[in-house]
Amino acid sequence: MSLSPNQQLLPLTARVNDHHHLTIGGCAVPELVQTFGSPLYILDEVTVRTACQQYRAALREFYPGEHLVLYASKAWSCLALCALVASEGLGIDVVSGGELYTALQAGVPPHTIYLHGNNKSAQEIREAITAGCPLVLDNWQDIKISETIAREQQVRPRVMVRVTPGIDCHTHAYIRTGQRDSKFGFDLEELPQVFAHLQASPLQCVGLHAHNGSQIFSLAHPQDLPQILLKYYQLARTEFGLDFTELNVGGGLGIRYTEQDDPPTIADWVKAVTTGVISACAQLNLPLPKLLCEPGRSIVGPACVTAYTVGSQKVIPGVRTYIAVDGGMSDNPRPITYQAQYRAVVANRMNAPLSQRVTIAGKHCESGDVLIQDIHLPELEAGDILVILATGAYNYSMASNYNRLPRLAAVLVNNGTAELILQRETYADLLRQDRLPPRLRI
Ligand SMILES: *Cc1c(COP(=O)(O)O)cnc(C)c1O
After folding, report:
1. What is the pLDDT of residues 115-158, one digit of tens each?
2. Cα(5)–Cα(17) distance, rounded to whole angstroms?
3. Strand pairing of 67-72 and 40-44?
4. Ligand 1 pocket by C-beta < 6 Å: which residues?
5. Tell me, what DSSP letter sits at residue 26?
6. pLDDT for 71 beyond 90
7. Of 13, 48, 314, 322, which sits 20 to 30 A from 295 (CA to CA)?
């Protein structure tokens, strides 16, 4: 059994070569930076594939019913990733027309692409229905727009109803504190009304969906969630005669960003979910639904590192040493957005002793643009390659052009080969959408 990627700080193929250089997917990181430039996202194909395979293998092992794993592409949406996870038999969940377009362009079968979102536009809903993608209905507006388009096109789109399950989880403080107060999905109390409406609807509603948060380490929550959902799932079948056959429990499994993080394995998470589903079905005398789940972070997070080049340093005696790198909050907004913690290594001197405590700063014009506060690292000089770990999830996908920094290139590494999957933006790209009204020309 291979290691669970979400429990590793480094991608599964990370090694140190004879020159004490970090290698990933058989490629030396300093050489990748030389070839493809800096900073650079380096994505390890083996780690992504292994995570996909572990979700599917665990479902086969622990769940006797039908099942489908969807990759939550908001974690990192691009053609190569959509195609990669689809080649492992995963579907894709998308939350916008742009993510939908990306998955479709990557060749992902439309019936495995689920459109989510708490404020879908009519245009986005039309795009999904036209392509033959299922929808996850979040609110009454979704229902109204989807029904109009379904009538227009004389089709019967497959839909699921998203619910906010927080209300019944009295035992868990983390759910009790405000989970009902969420912008996503229908409140449980509203469901009878929704079900009654769907009895005479051109939409083909096949089941329920819930997703309740991210970077979750507890197994109690994934195990308890199906119980709550299946109660309403049964209500829909018995009281309202709806032909429910699918249950989607969302994603949320956490990953290791620092040594302190100790998430359960992918297999343990799947086991908790399936145990919850199987026991609730037995209790409620229900046939097993087709079970869907939607991991994002745990598929792609641990598979990627970001390589930066070290630049200036500022030593404030007795206070702190700042080491600046050539990227920052534009390529990784997680630290400044929610104080996310990361670890780093020096890719060109993996054997050097950790002799100093430093703070890794970005190059943006914000004092808060700090990637790592207080980390033990070797002596560093300009030109060293600093690699921040576990940057696959919500880095590229949340990246910006703040300070007009071009967005990074990304390479997919495997077996000693590196292939470009995102080309580095150029200055010309930065001006691509700019328009200069003639009267302003100088
Ligand atoms: C964000 C999200 C996910 C994925 O969450 P992860 O923590 O990245 O696994 C799954 N489903 C929905 C609806 C989401 O919004």
Report:
1. 999 999 999 999 999 999 999 999 999 999 999 999 999 999 99
2. 21
3. unpaired
4. 72, 74-75, 93, 116, 211, 214, 250-253, 294-298, 393
5. T
6. yes
7. 13
The pTM for the full model equals 0.96
Nearest to 194 by CA among 149, 152, 238, 240: 240
**What single DSSP character describes residue 215?**
S
Token representation of residue 182:
């969420």
Give the residue-averaged pLDDT of 213-224: 90
> The tokens of 424 are what?
């580095």
Candidate of 68, 69, 73, 74 to mutate for ligand 1, largest count of ligand atoms within 8 Å of Cβ: 74
Report the topology of domain 5-44+304-430.
Lyase, Ornithine Decarboxylase; Chain A, domain 1 (2.40.37)
Mean model confidence pLDDT for the chain: 95
Give the pLDDT band of residue 181 (cuts 50, 70, 90): confident
Q: Where are any strands of DSSP class E within 123-217? A: 135-137, 158-164, 186-187, 204-209
CA separation, residue 283 to residues 231, 270, 286 (Å) = 10, 20, 8
Map tokens 């040493």 to a residue: 321
Residue 171, C-beta contacts closer than 8 angstroms, at least 6 positions apart: 224
Output the CA 226–ligand 1 centroid distance in Å: 16
Closest atom of ligand 1 to 297 CA is 8
Tens digit of each residue's pLDDT (9 = 90 or more) over 338-386: 899 999 999 999 999 999 999 999 999 999 999 999 999 999 999 999 9
**Which residues are marked as active site?**
365
pLDDT tens figures, 195-211: 999 999 999 999 999 99
Q: Which CATH class is domain 45-300?
A: alpha beta
Q: Which amino acid is it at 126?
A: R
Q: Which tokens is 283 given? A: 């209790």
Instruction: List the structure tokens of 114.
Output: 């689920």
* Integer Cα distance of 78 and 422 in angstroms: 8
Q: In the chain, where are the structural domains located?
A: 5-44+304-430, 45-300
Minimum-distance ligand 1 atom for the alpha carbon of 75: 8
Which of 48, 120, 211, when mutated, tests ligand 1's pocket best, judged by the most ligand atoms within 8 Å of its CB?
211
Cα–ligand 1 centroid distance for 251 (angstroms): 5
Atom of ligand 1 nearest to the CA of 213: 7
